[in-house]
Amino acid sequence: MRENDVDSLVLTRQTTQESVVDHIRTLILSRKFKPGDRLVQSDLAEEFGVSRTPIREALHDLASEGLVSFSAYKGATVADFSLVELEEIYTVRIALESYAAFLAAQYITEEELQQMQALLEQTEEALQQADHLRMLQLNREFHAILYNASRQSRLYEMIINHLDLSDMYRRLYFTVEHLYTNTITEHQELLEILQRGDSEGAEQHTRYNLQQTASVLINFLQETQQ
């Protein structure tokens, strides 16, 4: 591993595990560690200045996120981002989530709108702090309230399932410079549409933004795989 592959780390005893996970995740999502690259525990431990224990635990945590793969022959390697999988997941998400937004505009309550507004304000704070992973979490909570407002429990469960399936691609989106800033504007526009009870507007807005996200991710992956 070359020195310029890794940012300098400031690790404390209390935050070593979280820091190791965060930094390896960032290196994977920023494509400094490319799909198929081996992640050798001893090399990472030496580079980060920690023991192998937090490295081993971090790699297993990242495997649960779909970012790392383990095999008997290669050990830990960076998982591959699949264009086919990405396109399939977003095709389903676009269909399900746009319909759920259409229904939500009819049934959403004032309390739910206030909850979404509060999450939007927290997202703005996270953006100011450049806490992109926090933004990702808040983004999920924002949309969970929206889709729950459809009052269709099976539809909601299917959407949450596909949100989880697309998690590593959503994480990738939030590491691409400037793209995560779009979230604030998109959420504010959607809230205004919902406050008007505009079902068709909510459907179109949701469909368009998911299509744009998928397009950006597909282009980004195609460029980095060339």
Question: Could you characterize the architecture of this molecule?
Answer:
There is one protein chain. With 226 residues, the chain is mainly alpha-helical. It has 2 domains: 3-78, Winged helix-like DNA-binding domain superfamily/Winged helix DNA-binding domain (Arc Repressor Mutant, subunit A, Orthogonal Bundle); 83-224, GntR ligand-binding domain-like (Four Helix Bundle (Hemerythrin (Met), subunit A), Up-down Bundle). 69% of the residues lie in helices and 4% in strands. It is built from 10 helices and 2 strands. The chain has helices at 16-29, 41-48, 52-64, 83-107, 110-128, 132-148, 153-165, 167-173, 182-195, 199-224; strands spanning 68-71, 75-78. Strands 1-2 form a two-stranded antiparallel ribbon. α4 (83-107) runs antiparallel to α10 (199-224). The protein is elongated and about 55 Å long. Mean pLDDT is 87; it is low at 1-14.
Secondary-structure topology with pairs:
Elements: H1 16-29, H2 41-48, H3 52-64, E1 68-71, E2 75-78, H4 83-107, H5 110-128, H6 132-148, H7 153-165, H8 167-173, H9 182-195, H10 199-224
Antiparallel strand pairs: 1-2
Concise summary:
The protein is mainly α and 226 residues long. The protein is 69% helix and 4% strand. It has 2 domains: 3-78, Arc Repressor Mutant, subunit A (Orthogonal Bundle); 83-224, Four Helix Bundle (Hemerythrin (Met), subunit A) (Up-down Bundle).
Give a quick set of tags describing it.
single chain, 226 residues, mainly alpha, 2 domains, two-stranded antiparallel ribbon, 4% strand, disordered N terminus
